[in-house]
Amino acid sequence: MNYNEYQYRLDKGSKKLPCPECLKRTLVRYVDHETGEYLPSHYGRCDRETNCNYHLNPYKDGFGKTYGNAETSSIPGIWKNTNNCLKLLNNNRFENIPIEILKQTLSLEGYDQNVFIQNLLHHIAFPFDLKDIEKIIVQYNLGTVCNGYRTGAITFPYIDIQNQVRTIQVKQFDQNNHTTGTDFLHSIIEKHHRRNNKEIPDWLKAYLKNEKIVSCLFGENLASKYPLNPIALVEAPKTAIYGTLYFGFPDNPVNLLWMAVYNLSSLSYEKCKVLKDRRVYLFPDLSKNGKAFEIWTMKAKELQERIPGIRIKVSDLLEINGEEAERSDGLDLGDYLIKLDWRKFRSRYEKPESEKFQEEQIIPIPESETIPDLISENGEKSEVPATNYFCDSIPAYLDNKGRLLIETPFGKTFTTYPSIDHYNQRICLPIFIDKNEIDLALIKEVRINLNSLSINT
Question: Measured between alpha carbons, how far is residue 448 from residues 346, 408, 425 in Å?
Fold first, then answer.
């Protein structure tokens, strides 16, 4: 049967609609050849095959069978349209992995055989402290496959902003934390049941009908927990783990909050739309001829246009410094970080720029904000500012107009709110002002409580 014998065909005319995926007016619609009528607007193919690749075929999802069925051919058109709307909703519905399945990967005994975790503790040039590894495990719900052919593999759960487990990636690593195997937990569970002639669980039957496996960001659930942090987006969860361990944890709101998209082609509007009103830094992996950097730079422009309030920058750090062999091997940011001493690196980057600025400019701090029990040798109170000792708060500033100023990462701008109340109540979005626009002689320090993310004066 050739294409011309199909009842539903792509329109050969010039009429096009906005594509449901990329929103460009490039969607060629399907038309009923017998009636000359267009099918519902979501059936079609986007002309931007390289950049978008959207294509919903009416025969692929059963539309053709429904309309060709003799029992439905006489049903009024309005009923048919309603039926297809319901089908479309079902196609967009995503079945999640039960939280109980995630919990099974979080066994405390499993971390002793978790190769990736044990490497970070013992087998790298600069092993991490146990407390940091425990903290990173809790932050991203990292787990272990404790038995079967993937024994010792680490699990990377992709949990969405509503705390639903979308998928759980399984990665096996060697002693150098190089990937030796990749899988998904639902696939492992399915294979186990089929090999042992066991009935597939109901949740898994429903899950296997999902069109996409990775449908959210790794670390997406942290976006609501840490609403002030700038976002760092990388390809793989492993790189996000390294980024956090080197640049610092997000409980300090000036630190980067690290997330991953899964792979190069997974940077999309659907995943990134949860990052509206956030500042986002992209760190693409190295690639031959800079292809990865080029793709993410183009995608960043598209996301900037489509996502309200988002501010995206693409880091060219690797692109500028990467050697040809490293490009061929597709090295990522983590491959560079893991060679460095994390203690020295973190001491440089984790400390808020506002503290460095305060020390350099010697901004006066009121007597009440010094630490009273620090006594010098001559019996006088120390004037060492509390900034250097309080671990539950960070500095911010008020200018002579009452505006609240918080230094953004890398120290080039201030994140600015009209007042402390605007910040505490989150009643407006911040704006970013260059430091050069602020009279530094007219600002005074206040403190942001890291537990409540609020300011009391």
Answer: 21, 14, 13
Which strands make up the sheet holding 44-46, listed edge to edge? 8-10, 27-32, 44-46, 55-56
Cα 214 to Cα 37, 96, 236, 293, 307: the distances in Å are: 36, 11, 12, 22, 20
Q: pLDDT tens-digit profile of 183-196?
A: 999 999 999 999 99
Measured CA to CA, the distance from residue 25 to residue 30 in angstroms comes to 15
CA separation, residue 45 to residues 12, 41, 266, 339 (Å)? 12, 11, 20, 46
Torsion of CA 266, 270, 276, 278, to 10 degrees: -10
Q: Which two tokens stand for residue 270?
A: 């659907």
Question: What number of other Cβ atoms are within 10 A of residue 298's Cβ?
Answer: 13
- 341 SS3 class: coil
Strand (E) or helix (H) holding 242? helix 237-247
How many other C-beta atoms lie within 10 A of the C-beta of residue 31? 21
Q: What global pTM score does this model have?
A: 0.61
- d(C-alpha 223, C-alpha 230), whole Å: 10
415-434 residue pLDDT tens: 888 888 888 877 776 777 88
Backbone angles phi, psi at 153, to 5 degrees: -75, 150
Please report, in angstroms and rounded to a whole number, the separation of the first and last CA atoms in the chain: 77
The two structure tokens encoding residue 330: 């597709």
| Strand order, beta sheet including 311-314 | 257-260, 231-234, 279-282, 311-314
- Let me know: does 247 contact 271? Beta carbons within 8 Å: no
Beta bridge partners of 231: 257, 280
Query: Any residues with CB less than 8 A from the CB of 243 and at least 6 apart, and which?
Result: 232, 234, 256, 258, 283, 333, 334, 337
Structural contact between residues 228 and 260, judged by C-beta atoms closer than 8 angstroms:
no
Q: What is the H or E stretch that residue 167 is in?
A: strand 165-173
